[in-house]
Amino acid sequence: MQRPIRRALLSVSDKTGIVEFARALAVQNVELISTGGTAKALAAAGIKVTDVAALTGFPEIMDGRVKTLHPKIHGGLLSVRGDARHAAAQAEHGIGDIDLLAVNLYPFEETVAGNAGWNAAVENIDVGGPAMIRAAAKNHDGVTVIVDPLDYAMVMAEMAAHGGTTLRETRRKLAAKAFGRTAAYDAAIAQWFGHELNDPLPAYFVAGGRRLQMLRYGENPHQQAALYASGERRGVAGARQLQGKELSYNNLNDTDAALECLAEFGTEGDAACVIVKHANPCGVAIGASPAEAYRKALRCDPVSAFGGIVALNRRLDAATAEAIVTLFTEVIAAPGADEDAIAIVAAKKNLRLLLVDGLIKSGAHGLMMKSIAGGLLVQTRDDASIDGLDLKTVTRRKPTARELADLRFAFRVVKHVKSNAIVYAKDGATVGIGAGQMSRVDAVHIAARKGGDAVKGSAVASDAFFPFADGVLQTAEAGATAVIQPGGSIKDDEVIRAADEAGLAMVFTGTRHFRH
Fold this sequence. Notes:
This protein is α/β, with parallel strands linked by helices. It has helices spanning 18-27, 36-44, 52-56, 71-78, 84-93, 108-113, 118-123, 128-138, 152-161, 168-196, 249-262, 290-300, 302-305, 318-324, 339-346, 401-414, 440-451, 469-478, 492-501; strands spanning 7-12, 31-34, 50-51, 100-104, 144-146, 210-214, 226-229, 240-243, 271-277, 280-287, 308-312, 329-334, 352-355, 367-372, 375-380, 392-393, 422-425, 430-434, 459-462, 482-485, 505-508.
């Protein structure tokens, strides 16, 4: 059982709740030590506080870079309570115990999120804070460490209930949280350096994030799951939920897939709609209005759209909301929503409405991670866009202007369909999608079957090359008139001849879009 907390060091960048916490500690006769801005805030509130410089006998120097890196601080945090040798060293050097540490770090993540320059970012790398946190967390048997203002109330309640001390279980949990915080902080710094130095895959890869919420379960009910914010990119993790029941793991994963595909169409020009089911687009379209784009996207596969995710690149208006709520939908994601539309969606109490501040941009950089047994696969994002590709017509017939527009549209979409992937498109809308097949020709068949007569006169996109002529010939038999694919097969000449014989126009992109 730890003795009552008698001495606390408070040094916070985020001063939320710190005055109230300090006042509650003072009521329990806890001696307060603090630094710079925190000490001034407490003194201004009429709370007795000792400045760290007065304790150490050494002033803050080098613009505050050196202030807590001192034996009287770290000795007080690291001394093992009840150890005679440690006690003797403390007595010899005049080091008192520090029983509680409340620290949050310089706002490095917020600084770099605001596109600060190199010098500003470096100055917001905290050194003394993490050192104190790690010292206190290591010595959690005798020290209570707090890195989150949300934990102040819990600690105060426990102190009040247990004679001014905290329970060992609590200290261990707080220590684990503290190490997690410093690890995530260092990860953010390392990632920033990698980005600035154009070295996204360094010798030591680190990733970290703050837990936003526990989820009911993972992909299946027997799996545990949580949502973390990495701070790298805007998207579903930062969305504001206006209504509907709690988002599930699958909802979040599917909404992310929808927003990634939606990014291909930007926020200028045509309205765009993406409908996703099980992380695959089942309908994508552009139109003069969000309502038109939704109706065109829905026609592609209304069966799969049941229970799906709808993402829009325009504000949700009443007409679009009315159209969407006629079919069971899990999530609507949009950059904004009119009051009339919000009221319409509110009639469906379980339907989640998400407002996404700043839609993801096509070609945005970042990293993708996948865990494997004993390791982690990390790669840069597939940021290749059709707008930046050098398209090459390889058949005798060139695509018409309409065909070329549909080819470009289809290739934007196929990038976001699980491989092997085939997308038929016509007049700015998908009409048939084949996803996740072991053979490309099967994906061709499935997409054509789903599209039916709508495939006639369409353009077709393949995420990777056609290894044989059979797949291309099947698209012609289905009624497609033009094909876009990466090319690169050893049988490209055979495939091109087959396309010429079928009267198809075919374009090579030179870029593959596998998505596993």
